[in-house]
Write a structure and sequence with these properties.
The protein is α/β, with parallel strands linked by helices. Helices cover about 40% and strands about 30% of the residues. It contains 3 helices and 5 strands. Strands 1, 2, 3, 4 and 5 form a 5-stranded mixed sheet that branches. β2, α1 and β3 form a beta-alpha-beta unit. The chain starts with a strand and ends in a 9-residue tail after the last helix. The mean pLDDT is about 95.
Amino acid sequence: MEIREEKSEENIILHVSGEIDGTNVDDFESTLDDACERTESLILDLDGLEYVSSAGLRVFLTIQKKMKQRGFDMLLKNVEDEVMDIFSVTGFVKLLNIE
């Protein structure tokens, strides 16, 4: 997994690529949690994310919940077909804000 941060005046964009699984999910959560605390609008650009495990799905929900509790937004965009299939099968398309 690789995460590259891009910051603008209004939001933080995290470009996520590779795979999110048990070996790196703690790093993924830590990076998202840190970004969550520094912005009102968190955008996750998933172009290049090839796989996400159930542990990774939990992180998406946790961070989205934190953003909503603060009254802010999290958006997922450029979701690859394979990852979108995982979101669809698990019902996460109804839970996450996906563009």
